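F.,

This is the one I mentioned.
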């Protein structure tokens, strides 16, 4: 025992050896002396000073608390010491500060050490600093882990994919919120159950076998491979999922992590996109895109089979009149009813498609190797489809009858593309439409050549304006007493290689392509410039100038604005401008028509109905619309010389115009006899080669100034 204090008891010394070698720090405190009287080496080590130093000191040196003075520490410790001396043993976990100022945590046991002479207290300290630090560290780690696992769970719960972890027995270990949303089971219901409950049959029954095979052979159908499969909801509903499965090791055991995405909506969206891409939304029939694909397939099959097929195009006759008289809803009903009939008829023999509007197409295969025989079968199919379109439809309580125009093309294995086949069938259909309607026509090569000619003409026509190849000729309109009252402006195209192209040839083309609107604006501007020129001369200032307006131009929403602008730009009198509309304009929407005509009329522009008698205009229209003049078509005038019936018609027309307050002009007057008969019928205005062929502006102006001899058109 180190440094026994003077007078130290022999019994105590007897224990010296144990005292010196104890692993715990042992000290003896003399209460009355106020200092330690014995300390072992472990105590010196704990307090970080020598035992000699220790024996000079009391416990207050090491047990001071923050803000305590040495004296108050001593008082506090004396109180504890007195308890111990009174027989209470004290066991504390305390912190002490070593001589070097370091903190140590200790378990302190205080016992009264019986001594006849002195009040001694034995203190044993066990240094638990490391253990406590380890505990603190452990708690910290636990908190961190708890935080981490909370974080992981919230990550798991917030991912859109369902995450399911299963052990090698297929027992579910983890089931996140998305998995609950996808499968309908709560995590509590799922965890601990076998994952096969999420699978429909037969996967459910095969699952166990699949797992054991994977474990024994490592062969996987799913593990490591993303794939689309089916799953079963708690309700029993089976739905498609995208599953990717990975094998992991957790605590040395294999586990499987499945990432699951419910793709029902994706598949529905995909199906919807496909429906939109390949089917017509109104009738549900395949659309043009699918027709093209079908044609490509047929052509591929034909290369092997050498079989013939037919492509038929159908257009419902006068469908627009149903739309405008019964409304668009009725038009839609009709299209749906026809579509159902058509597709039932074609059924397993081929495809019925809707190309848009009132156009349908059919591809029928299996017409045999012999072309003649195939043509016959195709004709039968056309007749069948025609019959279907003629049968009545119940529309808004009425039995509505329609007809269709069909174009057919029989084709065998050939080098023609789907587009070329379609263009040919379309052409044949237009042929049927223009010839008689309610009929079918087969494509023939002559038609094809005509198309090529028209296409190149249209191409050239687009260049005609910038190249200044268009010009106007003026044909006089003359009163019966030979005064020139005005003229009709007639368009001419001086083609660089084809020579003079007739408007009868290129205007219909320009109409089909919509290019006529641009041409029309040019004509309008040119005509107004001529009127402006006439305005400057007294002899010509009152002349009227008629220009021809096609239905497409008139239909343009900008038409009235274009006319207004041309008139005001040129600064001419609107009363001198006359618009010649053909009867085809009357087939346009009646409200739009009368609205535009009234506006033009209000401005003072004259309206003349061209080629009267060749179209469908009815007396009712003539009464309803603000028209100024009827132009009797040349076909009636030609017949005037030979046909008494025509004279009666012309007379009737002229009488009618008088009743309606309309002026009348006869066009295409070529002979004196025609003129005489027209005058006899009451016609006061004439136009034709007899009174003057179309001529250049200068010549027209000169003729008007003198109201002189008519001049023939120069055809160069
Ligand atoms: P349209 O308006 O009925 O014009 C009358 C056509 O008859 C003109 O043919 C004219 O040259 C011709 N013609 C005049 N007098 C006689 C005659 O005594 N005998 C015969 N056989 N024919 C006569 P053109 O100039 O070839 O015009 C043909 C059609 O082209 C016009 O018929 C008109 O519908 C259209 N057209 C002409 N110019 C224009 C235009 O600027 N715009 C539009 N949209 N169409 C035009
Ligand atoms: Mg005309
Ligand atoms: Mg005419």
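My design for it:
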């Amino acid at each position: 025992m180190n440094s026994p204090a003077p007078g130290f008891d022999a019994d105590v010394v007897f224990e010296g050896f144990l005292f010196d070698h104890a692993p715990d720090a042992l000290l003896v405190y003399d209460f009355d002396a106020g200092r330690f009287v014995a300390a072992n080496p472990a105590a010196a080590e704990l307090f970080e000073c020598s035992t000699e130093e220790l024996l000079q000191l009391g416990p207050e040196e090491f047990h001071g608390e923050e803000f305590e003075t040495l004296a108050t520490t001593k008082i506090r410790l004396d109180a504890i010491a007195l308890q111990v001396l009174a027989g209470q043993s004290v066991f504390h976990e305390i912190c002490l500060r070593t001589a070097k100022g370091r903190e140590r945590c200790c378990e302190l046991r205080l016992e009264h050490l019986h001594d006849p002479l002195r009040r001694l207290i034995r203190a044993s300290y066990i240094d638990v600093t490391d253990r406590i630090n380890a505990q603190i560290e452990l708690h910290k780690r636990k908190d961190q882990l708890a935080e981490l696992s909370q974080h992981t769970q919230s990550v798991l719960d917030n991912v859109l994919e369902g995450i399911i972890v299963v052990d090698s027995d297929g027992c579910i270990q983890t089931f996140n919120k998305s998995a609950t949303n996808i499968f309908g089971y709560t995590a509590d219901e799922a965890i601990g159950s076998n994952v096969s409950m999420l699978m429909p049959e037969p996967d459910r029954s095969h699952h166990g076998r699949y797992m054991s095979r994977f474990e024994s052979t490592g062969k996987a159908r799913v593990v490591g491979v993303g794939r689309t499969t089916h799953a079963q909801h708690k309700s029993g509903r089976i739905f498609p999922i995208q599953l990717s499965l990975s094998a992991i090791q957790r605590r040395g055991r294999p586990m499987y992590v499945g990432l699951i995405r419910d793709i029902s909506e994706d598949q529905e969206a995909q199906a919807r996109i496909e429906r939109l891409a390949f089917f017509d939304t109104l009738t549900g029939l395949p659309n043009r895109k699918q027709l093209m694909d079908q044609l490509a397939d047929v052509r591929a099959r034909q290369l092997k089979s050498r079989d013939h097929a037919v492509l038929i195009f159908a257009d419902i006759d006068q469908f627009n009149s149903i739309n405008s008289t019964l409304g668009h809803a009725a038009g839609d009903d009709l299209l749906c009813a026809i579509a159902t009939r058509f597709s039932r008829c074609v059924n397993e023999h081929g495809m019925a498609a809707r190309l848009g509007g009132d156009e349908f197409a059919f591809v029928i295969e299996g017409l045999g190797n012999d072309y003649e025989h195939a043509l016959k079968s195709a004709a039968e199919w056309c007749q069948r489809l025609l019959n279907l379109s003629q049968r009545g439809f119940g529309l808004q309580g009425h039995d509505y009858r329609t007809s269709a125009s069909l174009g057919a093309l029989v084709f065998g294995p050939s080098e023609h593309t789907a587009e070329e086949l379609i263009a040919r069938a379309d052409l044949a259909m237009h042929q049927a439409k223009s010839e008689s309607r309610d009929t079918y026509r087969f494509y023939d090569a002559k038609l094809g050549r005509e198309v090529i000619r028209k296409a190149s003409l249209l191409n050239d026509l687009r260049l005609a304006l910038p190249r200044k190849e268009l010009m106007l000729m003026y044909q006089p309109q003359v009163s019966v007493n030979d005064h020139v009252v005005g003229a009709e402006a007639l368009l001419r195209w001086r083609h660089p290689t084809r020579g003079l192209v007739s408007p009868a040839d290129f205007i219909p083309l320009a109409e089909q392509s919509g290019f006529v609107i641009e041409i029309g604006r040019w004509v309008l501007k040119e005509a107004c410039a001529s009127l402006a020129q006439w305005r400057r001369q007294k002899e010509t200032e009152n002349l009227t100038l008629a220009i021809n307006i096609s239905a497409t131009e008139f239909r343009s929403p900008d038409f009235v604005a274009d006319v207004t602008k041309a008139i005001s730009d040129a600064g001419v009198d609107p009363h001198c401008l006359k618009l010649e509309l053909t009867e085809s304009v009357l087939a346009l929407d009646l409200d739009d028509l009368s609205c535009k005509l009234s506006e033009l009329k209000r401005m003072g522009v004259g309206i003349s109905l061209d080629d009267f008698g060749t179209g469908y205009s009815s007396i009712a229209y003539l009464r309803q619309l603000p028209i100024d003049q009827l132009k009797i078509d040349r076909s009636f005038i030609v017949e005037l010389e030979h046909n008494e019936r025509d004279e009666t018609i012309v007379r009737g027309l002229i009488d009618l115009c008088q009743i309606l307050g309309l002026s009348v002009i006869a066009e295409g007057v070529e002979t004196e006899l025609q003129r005489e008969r027209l005058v006899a019928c009451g016609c006061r205005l004439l136009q034709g080669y007899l009174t003057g062929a179309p001529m250049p502006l200068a010549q027209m102006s000169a003729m008007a100034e003198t109201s002189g001899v008519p001049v023939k058109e120069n055809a160069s």
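Residues 475, 490-491, 502-504, 507, 523, 547-550, 580, 610-611, 634, 667-670, 688-689, 694 surround C2E (ligand 1) (CB under 6 Å).

Talk soon.
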